[in-house]
Amino acid sequence: MAALLESAWQYLITNFSDFQLACIGSFIIHESVFFLSGLPFILLERAGWLSKYKIQAKNNSPAAQGKCISRLLLYHFGVNLPVMLVSYPVFKRMGMRSTLPLPSWKVVFGQIIFYFIIEDFVFYWGHRILHTKWLYKNVHSVHHEYATPFGLTSEYAHPAEILFLGFATIIGPALTGPHLFTLWLWMVVRVLETVEAHCGYDFPWSPSNFIPLYGGAYFHDYHHRLLYTKSGNYSSTFTYMDWIFGTDKGFRNLEAIKKAEN
Predict the structure, then answer these.
(1) Which residues of 207-229 are buried (b: 16+ CB within 10 A; e: fewer)?
(2) CB–CB of 238/213 below 8 Å?
(3) Which of left, alpha, beta for 139 (phi over 0: left; psi -120 to 50: alpha)?
(4) Is the peptide bond before 101 cis (omega within 30 degrees of 0)?
(5) SS3 letters for the chain?
(6) How far, in Å, CA of 140 to CA of 155, rounded?
(7) Tens of pLDDT along 137-164?
(8) Which among 163, 117, 116, 114 is positioned nearest to 139, based on CA atoms?
(9) 48-85: per-residue pLDDT in tens?
């Protein structure tokens, strides 16, 4: 497996420049993973399949779904891609490389765990700040246009928020100067996590049912249902920041009431 992976990587670095792989390659991977993982939830919602696992009974109209997709394409090409192009020299200066040998899995997993820790901390405070009155009204309310989220709404946001919270995702890699392979894997994991958190379904196989402190769709859906002043549940992937600062009390109280009623 390792030999096959290194052979494939050798092909990439032989046929494409470092800039092409880090910028265009990263963009293609992001778009592919994001839309391939997010589009199925639109189909599920329209067809009514697996509705017993849907968290909210309400559905989004095809027009609302279409608006989300068109805006996402605009933001991805107008904001995400230029940011990748501009940030390339910064990552190179911080030590990012694409040459062989590939890093060991021990190094890859260690760095990704570090990225999750950093991202959770920075995202929590950035997200919480976005829920202050002025920033919510002028910036973050765009993301909350969808009170019933579906996978693709995870990246539906004001361009300023894309830049603001995107910093939380790239700060970890910027600090460590990772191999491009590690950066790609981190991007894939992060995209899959945020799509799942916004999918609107609480499946028995959802990661939150197996991984301690993992937020997931059920935890984050509560955040979208409530008014901005009362929402809480600001965490990104793991919920410990909300627990430490008590911003998940409303959610936990509601869960306690539901259990008592049952």
Answers:
(1) bbeeeeebbbbbbbbbbbebebe
(2) yes
(3) alpha
(4) yes
(5) CHHHHHHHHHHHHHHCCHHHHHHHHHHHHHHHHHHHHHHHHHHHHHHCCCHHHECCCCCCCHHHHHHHHHHHHHHHHHHHHHHHHHHHHHHHHCCCECCCCCCCHHHHHHHHHHHHHHHHHHHHHHHHHHCCHHHHHHCHHHHHHCCCCCHHHHHCCCHHHHHHHHHHHHHHHHHHCCEHHHHHHHHHHHHHHHHHHCCCECCCCCHHHCCCCECHHHHHHHHHHCCCCCCCCCCCCECHHHHHHCCCHHHHHHHHHHHHHC
(6) 12
(7) 999 999 999 999 999 999 999 999 999 9
(8) 163
(9) 999 999 999 999 999 999 999 999 999 999 999 999 99
Tokens of residue 58, six digits: 């309400």
Residue type, 243: W
How far apart, in Å, are the Cα atoms of 113 and each of 108, 119, 157, 262?
A: 9, 10, 26, 37
